[in-house]
Amino acid sequence: MNYSTRCALADTLVPDWPAPANVRALQTLRSGGVSQPPWQSLNLGDHVGDDPAHVAANRGLLRQQLPGDPLWLQQVHGIVTVNAENSPIFSPADASFSRKPGLVCAVMTADCLPVLYCDQAGTVVAAAHAGWRGLLAGVLEQTIAQMSVPANEVLAWLGPAIGPRCFEVGDEVRAAFVARDAVAAHAFVPHGKAKWLADIYLLARQRLNQAGVFAISGGDACTVSEPQRYFSYRRDGVTGRMASLIWLVK
Question: Which of 22, 184, 216, 223 has its CA 20 to 30 A from that of 113?
Fold first, then answer.
């Protein structure tokens, strides 16, 4: 079957942020692909049990909107950041950066926080995957460091993640963040015995601010509460993955 005749283009949105003209970015949605339930329909993850042919078809649909194949990572909830110019596909890392036009940095998520970066001059871009473990460990700061530009010249876009009304965590998660920085307490609201609602967007903004990044956009979606728009692992268990992608053009 020629899947491309069924879906001309993958469903995506363009981040609303003040990036320079030579920076391009896309966020995929869950619609616009060929995968069947429970991965319907634009699942880009090849590690979640979906038919490999469907995943390949979905990636082919996305590829029509990109200058090249994305650098797909083997995401491990850590802080390793790789250079897209010389890293093999499926490198065990949670972020990548590029200074070369046409190289596409990408991360996949389904509740975790994707963060896209560029600098004001449009010389470098990066993409980071920040689940709470990676966020706590410093993946956002590590990515900024690898970009090798002044932090106050970095722009960040917070992509769709689990919202503050849906992200229930235990005492141990709150304690770990507060032990790292007391200001993190403002990102947690009591939610029953030994439970808290965590605002991953606020936690990310706090960490970005502490790193010297203040030009922050996005951070107003909720993957859990918008099932027609986003995949959510916490909501569905078996589900697909979305991609957040960024690259430079000449």
Answer: 22
For the chain, counts of helices (H) and of strands (E): 6, 14
DSSP 137-170: HTHHHHHHHHHTS-GGGEEEEE-----TTT-EEE
Q: Are 157 and 17 in contact (CB under 8 A)?
A: yes
Six-digit token string for 102: 């046409």
Tell me if 50 is assigned to some domain: yes
Distances (CA, A) of 66 to 28, 60, 130: 12, 10, 23
The widest CA-to-CA distance across the chain, in whole angstroms, is 56
Number of domains in the chain: 1
Task: Take residue 60 and report the two structure tokens written for it.
Answer: 């082919």
Q: What is the pTM of this model?
A: 0.95
Parent domain of 54: 3-162+218-248
